[in-house]
Recover the amino acids of this structure.
């Protein structure tokens, strides 16, 4: 039944009165002060549903809040966002991923896009670049920071992934490795992930075997190269 006040009202004119829902964003940064600054810049244009500073909490929060987009730094404690990205994109909400980071390595930017990023912008950029990245991602377009664009294109054209054979480990083992290189004992890692210390040792041994790594020092180098520790 038509409402009396709207009876005969042109459909096109009625759309003016329908408010567009704000995009819902989740912010993940290892520095809370940075995350708070993002929130200040983005409200009230966007709805900020949560702020997190931990990689494992990020995954839980994506499941809880089902945001439209996630603003994330490459490095977060407990699980870096390059490893978290694929898991987030496979979640039911499959939010847009906007990397906002100080890491200007074009290889890292390429990895981020291969793992589901919609945008990659540097913290060294201005506010306009930051906002353009978010709006482009939410509109379904890809965005690369203007500061990084030239280097990234050169990397993708001449030193890109075609010739690369990345040594990779599973997301589960990535969690274990990151916790270990952050200084946690096997017992502490086991408690954090609700598994046994023997399971932690088993995964560590197999990681080293698959990666052809012979020492803890080499394992640490692998973690640093893959941005599991800052």
């Amino acid at each position: 039944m038509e409402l009396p006040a709207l009876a005969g009202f042109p459909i096109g004119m009625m759309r003016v009165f329908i408010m567009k829902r704000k995009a819902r964003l989740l912010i993940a940064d290892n520095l809370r002060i940075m995350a708070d600054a993002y929130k200040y810049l983005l409200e009230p244009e966007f709805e900020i549903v949560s702020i997190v500073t931990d990689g494992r909490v990020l995954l839980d929060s994506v499941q809880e809040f089902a945001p439209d987009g996630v603003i994330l730094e490459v490095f977060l404690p407990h699980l870096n966002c390059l490893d978290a990205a694929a898991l987030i994109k496979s979640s039911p909400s499959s939010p847009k991923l906007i990397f906002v980071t100080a890491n200007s390595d074009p290889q890292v930017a390429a990895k981020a896009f291969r793992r589901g990023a919609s945008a990659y912008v540097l913290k060294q950029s201005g506010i306009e670049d930051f906002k353009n990245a978010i709006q482009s991602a939410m509109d379904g377009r890809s965005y690369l920071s203007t500061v990084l664009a030239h280097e990234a294109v050169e990397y993708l054209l001449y030193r890109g992934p075609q010739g690369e054979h990345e040594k990779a480990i599973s997301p589960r083992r990535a969690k274990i490795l990151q916790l270990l290189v952050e200084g946690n004992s096997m017992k502490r890692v086991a408690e954090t992930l609700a598994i046994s210390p023997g399971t932690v040792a088993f995964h560590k041994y197999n990681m080293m075997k698959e990666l052809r790594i012979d020492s803890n020092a080499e394992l640490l180098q692998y973690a640093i190269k893959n941005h599991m520790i800052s």
